[in-house]
Design brief:
Blueprint (H helix, E strand, L loop, with lengths): L6 H13 L2 H8 L3 H15 L4 E2 L7 E2 L1 H29 L1 E7 L1 H4 L2 H12 L3 E7 L2 H10 L4 E5 L7 E13 L11 E6 L3 H13 L4 E7 L2 H9 L5 E4 L8 E2 L11 E8 L8 H13 L3
Parallel strand pairs: 3-4, 3-5, 7-8
Antiparallel strand pairs: 1-2, 5-11, 6-9, 6-10, 6-11
């Protein structure tokens, strides 16, 4: 049998259990005593049980069934308030949309969000990952509020640009091949990093071979983590279990690249500047 409870009736019952007075409940609800009685009667009729003992000349009291029912009524009312508060809180929170690359999201951005959340817990961050060139376009189209990525050159929306060192990244178990070219893993469209790596090896008289390609940064990290290849990434984005390649491998020094943050011209949340400041601090930190 399905019984649908009216929250108004449940609140009336909870007040009656608290005051044990139909008159007091009527006063608190700004209604008449007969309306309070009608609501209690409706609850009892729906349940098929007497919840409140009352009568002329008798003190109002909860019956044993009423005592049991009260426990669940309090839970229902508390959950209702919690649900309303949760929805209102989400709707009231300002949203800040951050666009970044997967590689940066897994490293610098993760560190930044922890610090940012402590400063502005009222701001809801939404993260969207894409390629650097695509992120700038999405920023211009209004899809995101802040973009953090590889520098895309001078732009009116660029907030900062800074140089970061590239580093060889490896698994702790990686072993350099004796004579064959050094195996390398890169993104399928990561031509710039491939070029930096191969040029550095060539200048040092060493041979490298792009042995693995993946369309996604997670795939590159997996290949490196398995010890199948080395890769190249900004030094600040190296996170365990990957490590900077051991100096004993004799790998050449790599060039630097530029990371940049861009922000939309409008700032509804009022927090673009704070987020960009935290991103800048994280990017300047060297491991």
């Amino acid at each position: 049998m399905e019984i649908l409870f009216d929250l108004k009736e449940l609140r009336t019952f909870a007040l009656l259990a608290e005051t044990l007075s139909f008159t007091d409940v009527a006063l608190r609800l700004n209604t008449v005593q007969s309306a309070v009685s009608a609501q209690i009667n409706k609850l009892e009729a729906g349940l098929g049980q007497q919840l409140v003992s009352r009568g002329r000349g008798k003190k109002v009291a909860l019956t044993p069934d009423g005592e049991v029912f009260l426990v669940y009524v309090k839970r229902i009312l508390a959950l209702t308030e919690e649900a309303v508060e949760a929805v209102q809180t989400v709707n009231a929170r300002q949203v800040l949309r951050l666009g970044t690359t997967v590689t940066l999201a897994m490293s610098l951005v993760a560190e930044t969000l922890n610090a940012f959340a402590k400063l502005r817990p009222d701001i809801q961050i939404q993260i969207q990952c894409d390629r650097s060139d695509r992120l700038l376009q999405r920023l211009e189209e209004g899809d995101i509020d802040v973009a953090f990525m590889m520098d895309q050159g001078r732009h009116s929306l660029r907030a900062f640009v800074l140089s970061v060192e590239l580093a060889w990244v490896a698994s702790p178990t990686f072993e350099m091949p004796d004579e064959s070219p050094i195996p390398l893993a890169f993104l399928s469209d990561g031509r710039d990093l491939r070029r930096y790596a191969l040029r550095a090896l060539d200048a040092a008289g060493m041979k490298g071979r792009v042995s693995h390609l993946s369309p996604h940064p997670v795939g590159v990290r997996t290949l490196v983590q398995a010890g199948l290849a080395l890769s190249v990434m900004p030094s600040q984005t190296i996170v365990p279990p990957l490590v900077p390649a051991d100096p004993s491998l004799g790998l050449p020094q790599l060039a630097s690249i530029a990371l940049a943050a861009y922000k939309a011209p409008h700032d509804p949340s009022g927090c673009q500047g704070l987020l960009i400041e935290e991103l800048s601090c994280a990017a300047r930190h060297t491991r």
